[in-house]
Amino acid sequence: MNQSIHRATEKWISVSAPGGMARQVFVDVFDATEHAWKRVGTFTDRAAAEKEMTALKIKGTLSRVIQQSFCPTGR
Fold it and tell me: How far apart are CA 56 and CA 19, in angstroms?
């Protein structure tokens, strides 16, 4: 079974591959015409993702930050 590191300060999560996988932090925006969230950026650093989200919010765009704490294919 794969284990993931739950500390927000870690940049790597462990997977069944040598060295692990970089932590994934996504920025999504809400598309009102399709009533769906769309991915606009992928980051390994949460601070960079939050900076992008803030810039989008200043422009009036509804946005959010999603942080993966596991390997999506390892579930």
Answer: 34
